[in-house]
Amino acid sequence: MENHTLQDIPAARKVFILNYIKENGSASIKDLSILQNVSEATIRRDLDAMSIEGILERTRGGAILPHEKSTSFERVYHEKSKLMTLEKKAIGRFAASHVLDGDTIFLDSGTTSFQIGMNLADKRKITVITYDLFIANSIILDASSTLLVTGGVRKTDFGVLTGSLVLNFIRELRLNKAFLTADSVDISFGVSNASFDEVDIKKELIRSSRYVYLAADHSKFGKAAMTHVCSLHDIDEIITDDGLSVDMQKELSADNIAFTLVSPETED
Predict the structure, then answer these.
(1) Could you write out the DSSP letters of every residue in 67-86?
(2) Residues β-bridged to residue 227
(3) What parts of the chain have a pLDDT lower than 50?
(4) CA angle at residue 233 from 262 to 80, to 5 degrees?
(5) Rg (CA), the chain
(6) Sign of the alpha-carbon torsion through 31, 67, 46, 17
(7) Which of 2, 5, 59, 78 stands the most exposed, by the fewest C-beta atoms within 10 Å?
(8) In this structure, are residues 93 and 101 in contact, taking their beta carbons and an 8 Å threshold?
(9) What is the DSSP pairing of strand 57-59 with strand 62-64?
(10) Helix H segments across the chain?
């Protein structure tokens, strides 16, 4: 009788994959292939089958856990940072290229905004404003530039400041550009968030900015979260990655919504 290892048994391999994603937030085909000592094609078939079953959600080069059916579900920061990292880095680089020397900009909260902030070191005499503490503590700016952090109450596990102090701060501003993020993006419902805490902040950002970009990877599209932020027509340009479905691209174009697709530099 032939002796099989656990890795040779598809059911056991799927259990390993699910547990790995639960622990790490996401998984790449390459990493799973190495860990399970099987071909990338085998892992790809496993992920496709698990996606059809609704166990996980496929991404470029890997998979994540499916978004919860509850529209109020929101991942904590360290979980979000592990998802769609190549796409977010590409979006961040491209979005930062729109920042000109001398601009006053606002970076919304989130891991995609974080990537924008990480690409601003070569800009001169810019003013960067944020209520995201991870951004404030991490980005490097030229000596001629200024970083401002709003006041507010810290939201535990999310690294952001919320409340009336943030809103009052933004109301006194006139911004060249705001880089908005979102939990979900839908043609009909527009931009939405899973919680109420940051919605008024985002709305105030839109009112205070001459130009508004929405920076969101393709996994955010075709979904609606609990709380409406704005219509897509309130956004001047969407910056997303080339994993966005063709159908969604057609819907955006048909609705005259400007968008740009960027390509991650590498794939697993």
Answers:
(1) PPSSTT----HHHHTTSSHH
(2) 193
(3) 1-7, 68-74, 76, 267-268
(4) 50
(5) 20
(6) positive
(7) 2
(8) no
(9) antiparallel
(10) 10-24, 29-36, 40-52, 77-80, 85-96, 111-117, 133-138, 164-171, 199-208, 246-254
